[in-house]
Amino acid sequence: MKNRIIKTVLTVLLCICTILFLTGCPSHHDSVISDARYQKYKELTEGGMSHEDAHKWLDEHMEEWHPDYEKSDSDKQNETAKPTEEPVDFMEAICGTYLVSGTGVLTGGAVYDDEGPEATFTKLALHVSQAGDNAVQIDVESEHEGSGEVSAESPTVSYTDSMGYEVTVTFAVKDGVAHADMRIFGDLSIEDTGERCTETLTLSGDRFLK
């Protein structure tokens, strides 16, 4: 009888220990979730976010780190509805005619007219054509002609034209629209006096004609 009581007590104690062990130890799945949250938390705080903001972000953006997060049906539909963007051919996109406008500034006592200002607003047509696999030919209404290499990784063309002007053109393509920023700088001599002066044109505009 005594042995039976001891055996029963030991069995009960064993069951209690087993339950406590199982409830006290996280499952492998819980550990995966915890690790994922910690890794994202570490990434956020090392990036400069405060501890409080990091915890708040983790609670509000579970789709960014939780391994079990499933997007709603509406989210999935929106993703499938997004059109596939085709890669843009940079050279093809930038070639054409741009309407550029900006300001011209003269220094050294020169003016644009006999009694005119030292600065003026101007609109010009910038023509860009392909001159090779990675090169373009540029002119501004048949002036300031020149050429240079260009690519999406190096979108700036620089050259000195036949009149001695330094020309720089930087291209950008966004949402299928090509844009050009242009600077034309000349160190000149005033014909009547022989004094030195400079002219700087700063222009920008979008391509409107292929």
Topology:
Blueprint: H1 2-24, H2 28-46, H3 51-60, H4 73-81, H5 90-94, E1 96-107, E2 119-132, E3 135-140, E4 143-149, E5 156-160, E6 166-174, E7 177-189, E8 196-209
Antiparallel strand pairs: 1-2, 1-8, 2-3, 3-4, 5-6, 6-7, 7-8
Helix pairs in contact: 2-3
Task: Write a brief caption for the model.
This protein is an alpha+beta fold. 31% of the residues lie in helices and 38% in strands. It has an 8-stranded antiparallel sheet with strand order 4-3-2-1-8-7-6-5.
Q: Strand arrangement, largest sheet?
A: 4-3-2-1-8-7-6-5
Q: Give the uncertain stretches in residue-range form.
A: none
Average pLDDT for all residues: 82
Computed Rg: 35 Å
Largest beta-sheet characterization: 8 strands, antiparallel
Between the first and last Cα atoms, what is the distance in angstroms?
103 Å
**Rough shape?**
elongated
Strand content: 35-45%
Pattern of helices and strands: HHHHHEEEEEEEE
Number of strands: 8
Oligomer: single chain
The number of helical runs is 5
Helix content: 25-40%
Structural class: alpha+beta
